[in-house]
What we know:
By secondary structure, the chain is mainly α. The protein has one domain (24-236, 251-503): Growth Hormone, Chain: A, CATH 1.20.1250. The chain is 72% helix and 1% strand.
Amino acid sequence: MSSHPVSSSSFTPDHSPLAAHETGGLGGHPRGLTTLFFTEMWERFSYYGMRALLMLFMVKTAAEGGLAFDTKKAAAIYGTYTMSVYLLTILGGFIADNFIGARRAVFVGGIIIATGHFTMALGNITTFYAGLVLIAVGTGLLKPNISTMVGSLYRPTDERRDAGFSIFYMGINIGAFLAPLVTGYLAQSEGWRAQLTAWGLNPATSWHWGFGAAGVGMTLGLIVYILQRERLAHVGSAPAPEADGSRPWGKLGLVALGSLALIVAMKASDTYPVIVYVLFALQVAAILFFAFRPDEDSKRMAAILVFFFAAEIFWAIFEQTGSSITLFADKLTQNVAFGQAFPSSWWQSVNSIFVILLAPVFAYLWIILGHKQPSSPLKFMLGLLFVSLSFVLMVPASKLTADGKVGPLWLVGLFFLQTVGEMLLSPVGLSTMTKLAPQRLLGLVMGIWFLAAALGNKLAGVLAGHFESTNADDLANFFLKQAIWGGVATLALLALVPWVKKLMGGVR
Length: 508
């Protein structure tokens, strides 16, 4: 993997104090931000490279190299997988907080992720499912803890904090932009399939070359992380054991069982939808429970849960880019640019193009506005508004499919609106969690934040199972219903903004 192998000493705790205002890195930010930027860029290359292919691979026929699943089954698997990827971040955050530290968790998680992608590339149904499990487990270790390390680079009062997360988010999306172009070409390009035929290989195996390329991406991320590990010596150290030398193994078991139970419960929601409504009711009850407790940490936890609820609804709409929107692009869109046809999976890069363009704009905007910038709850409300408007746009686009495939500008508009919403909610959410969470629970709270994405992804899969490509009116209603629910959530959060600001106790 690298000419510089990692020893155990590479990740031993270093208790040197965090620099008060380190400016030696990218754009005057701490040097460690550059390391985490490129590590996460390649990890996201691996994730989005595989994700761009996943739904299409499952619904394509055996003759086309796919698994020949129907839309409902494929969407359910897609939703369960993407849910598990984020749900396991709670377990990963707990392990880092109590056992191995964030630095080592990121390293181990990266190894497991790479192994998962290469396993999927082997090309049978058993290795397909095994690869999905490995990627979910590895991401659970890596994803919350690399974000925690970004937050740890800054003092809580550092005005560069939101800007730093926006830059970090741009790195994520550079990887997400490049990935579908590479993996989509390998999986869907007629040129690459012709090359495989010329080599005497089965062209239907092209999908597995795409999955293998995703594994190469994660391997590159690990190499960056290892070579630049000295920049992170002051963050992410392994926690000290209890006074008697013990670790909370019992609590670890409970967190693991709880995570597994939630995965099973949400999988069961495919058959019993009432489970979803029960979970929503429990979330509301938890918000009220913490909100009316007297201590400040409890009130901040209530605010965290309000953000959780809003993000859950946001991701339920947004994350259909990998399911219903992927199918819309493949079946109902003219995939032609400047007179040249392109693989439908390349649409997965458009969101990232807009993020790369808009992230510096938002980072600069937050710095210029300083303390005058909108509060976090107001940013969240605006994020919900824009993602809801993206599905409003798809209503007339769906109506036009009655006359054949629609032009590509409809999807360009959808991705632009969703990206604006994403920039208002996702990097801000990461930053807000690190500001509101008690220091002793930072990794766990970051895991809770990703739980919102987990449940949102599962809901996205459930909703995508109702995607209808043969009837324009049904398709329009599919998007309209979700846009209405998003609008209702937007208005509810707008009404709650003053209350949430009070719960946050002065944190913006």
